[in-house]
C-alpha cells in the first residue's frame, strides 16, 4: 500500500484496510467511531484498557479487542492530525501577521523614535510613582493594623468602663433610694414631732389659761388633797387673786405628778373653739389616711393627681378647723416615696401654703396625655448638651 502525502488521507487508507480485515468481527466499527469527539474516544480507550490482560481470551475475542483498539487509535490519530493541520494553518497565518506587523513596526520606528523615548521616560516615571504608591499603601496598611488594634483595646476598655458605670450606677440608685426613704422617714418623724410639740404647746397654753380663769378663794384654807398625789407628797398649790377683777394665777407651777390630772380637768374647762383651732388629732388623720387611696404616679393605672387631691378634699371638707399641716400630713402619709421626695424639695413658703403646694403637685404629676400635658410636651425641647435621660426626666416632669 502506497503512503499518501496527506496524513489524514493516510489514516483513512489504513482505516479502510483495517475495516476490510475486521469486517467479520466489527462490521461498522469505523462508521461508529467516525463522528465521535476526542473525549468519547478517550472513554472508549479507557473502557478497553479495563480488560484484564492476564485473563485468557479466545482468538476471536482478542481479535475483536485488538480491532476495536486499532479503530479507536486510528480515529484518535485522525482527530489529532486534523487538529495539528488546523494549528499549522493558524501558525502560518500568525507568522504572516507577525511579519506584516514587524514591517509596520519597522516603518513606524523610524518616524517615532522621539515618541518612544518620551514614552519610555513616562513609563519610568510611572514606575517610580507606582513604587512610591505601593510604599504608601504598605505604610497605610501598617497604620491601619495599628489603629485597629488600638481601637479594639479601646473598645475593651469602653466595655469595662460601661460595666463599671452600670455597677456604680446601680449602687448609686440603691443608695439614693435608701437615702430618699431615710429622708422621708426623717421628714415624717419631723412632722410628727412638730405636731406633738404644737399639741404640747397647746396643752400648756390651755393649762395656763385654765389656771388663770380659775377663781381665787376668799379666805385661806387648806387645799384638798389631789386624787393623784405627787412624788413628793405635796398637795396642789393654792390660787391667789392679786387684784380685784383680775384672773387668778398660780403661786407655784404644778408638779409633774399633778400635770396629767390637771390637764384632763382643765381641758374640760377650756372652750371648744380654743381646742379646735389647733387642727385634727393624729389619730383622726391616720384614720382618714386609711380611707384615701395611695397616690403612686409611677405605677400604670394609678389614679391621677386631680382625683387624688379631690379625694383628700372630700375627706376633709366635713371636718372643722382643718389646717395646712393636716393636709400636708395626709399628703405625705398617702403618697409614694417619689411624691414625698418632691414635697421635701419644695421651699418653706410653698409647704406653708396648701394652695401653692397643690398647684406644684398638679404641675409635677399631671397626666402627660391630657391637653395641658400635651402642650407642655410639645413646647419642651432637648438641649444641645443635654443627655437623653435628663431630657426624658425633664419631659416627664
Automatic annotation (TrEMBL):
<feature type="coiled-coil region">
    <location>
        <begin position="77"/>
        <end position="199"/>
    </location>
</feature>
<feature type="region of interest" description="Disordered">
    <location>
        <begin position="215"/>
        <end position="259"/>
    </location>
</feature>
<keyword id="KW-0175">Coiled coil</keyword>
<protein>
    <submittedName>
        <fullName>Uncharacterized LOC107561609</fullName>
    </submittedName>
</protein>
